[in-house]
Amino acid sequence: MRERAGFYAVATLAVVLLFLAMRGFDSRGHWNPAREVEPARFETVDGEQRIVLRAGPSGHFFFQAEANGAPVRFMVDTGASYVTLTESDAERAGLRFSPEDFTLRFETANGAVYAAGGTLDELRIGDAVIRTLAVVVVPDDKLGGSLFGVNGLNRFDRRETTRDELVLTVEAAPQG
């Protein structure tokens, strides 16, 4: 009886570990713990537009947006003061910089980083549009992906966070 209980315990543990490990693989079979679990959901409720983001396996919130019409994948980062683009994402959005433009010094968890300042004419997240958004741009080798920082979050009327969801709300424009 004890042998059978031990077997079931080991088998159950193996299934649980396999399930948890599989959650970190993307559709091509590559390990990617930061992959997006599901796309953003867009709702209009009681005259408000809501963007609902589900946390990925790492607990971070990701979304796809259009920066000046170019697709950019963002990770929400409340520790970043500004929306921060990688240089390649900025270039796709039509923002180009020379090495001399990277003069803004930021202290990060990984040390000092030099960035260039810029402005996105338009950032579109579903039907929500943020116009004239200040951004900073960092070289690709200094950042693993673009970040949606506090100045972007503050453009929404409200944000609510639980362990599994982040809801960004903006009052819908009156119809008429």
Automatic annotation (TrEMBL):
One of its Pfam families is: Asp_protease_2
Question: Membrane-spanning residues where?
Answer: 6-25
List the keywords (alphabetical): Hydrolase, Membrane, Protease, Transmembrane, Transmembrane helix
Gene Ontology biological-process annotations: proteolysis
Q: Which domain of life is it from?
A: Bacteria
Q: Which GO terms describe its molecular function?
A: aspartic-type endopeptidase activity
Q: By its UniProt entry, which InterPro entries does this protein fall under?
A: Aspartic_peptidase_AS, Clan_AA_Asp_peptidase_C, Peptidase_aspartic_dom_sf, Retropepsin-like_bacterial
Name this protein carries in UniProt = Aspartyl protease family protein
UniProt source species: Parvularcula dongshanensis
